[in-house]
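Researcher: Good morning. I'm working through a list of sequences from a screen, and I'd like to move beyond sequence-only analysis. For each chain I'm collecting a predicted structure so we can compare shapes side by side. This is the next one on the list. No need for commentary yet; just the structure.
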Amino acid sequence: MSLPRAVLDADIIYSRVLHELMGRLATEARLFDLIWSEDLLVEARRSLIHGKGLTVEIADTWVGHMRREFPDGCVDPSSVAVEADLGSLTEDPNDLHVCALAIAGEADLLFTFDRGYLGEPLRARGVDVPDVDRYLAAQFAEQPIAIMRVVEKQADVWRGGGSLDELLAAYGRAGVPGFAAALAD
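Model: Good morning. C-alpha cells for this chain:
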C-alpha cells in the first residue's frame, strides 16, 4: 500500500519546529511521502530571508533539507499536463504554484495554515487541506507510540537537546496547541 502524498506549504516550511516534525513524521513514522517543487522551495527561502531575517546560507540549508531528505519527492508541475483551472483552487494568485504542485504531484494532503486555499475544489481534485493541529492530534490518537517516539527524538536534538516541555511549547507557538496538549497528557 502506498503512503499518502503530502505537500508542506511555505508557511509550514517557515516554521522550523513544524518543518522538522513533518519531515520526521514522513521519514520515521511513515505517515506520508513529502513532495515539493523548486518554486515552493524558492518561496520558502524568500520568506525565511525576508520574513525571519535568516542569512542566505541558513535559508539555503533550511530549504535544502527537502532536497536532501526527499529527493524522490521533487515534482515539476510544468512537466505534467495540469488541466485544472488553478484559479478555482485558491483565492491567492501567489499560491497557484502550490496548487499546480499538489495536482501534478497527485498529492492527497496539503498542509498549510493559509486559509486562502479552497477546500471543496481541492477535495474534488483529490487533495485534502486538513487543519494541521487537528490532523496531528488525530494521528497521535491513532498511533501514540509511533508519534511519541518521533517527538522524543525531535526533543533530543531540539535546541541542542532541550526538554520535551520546551518542544511542546514550541509546537503551541507554531500553531498546533491541540497537538501539544495531547502530547502533554
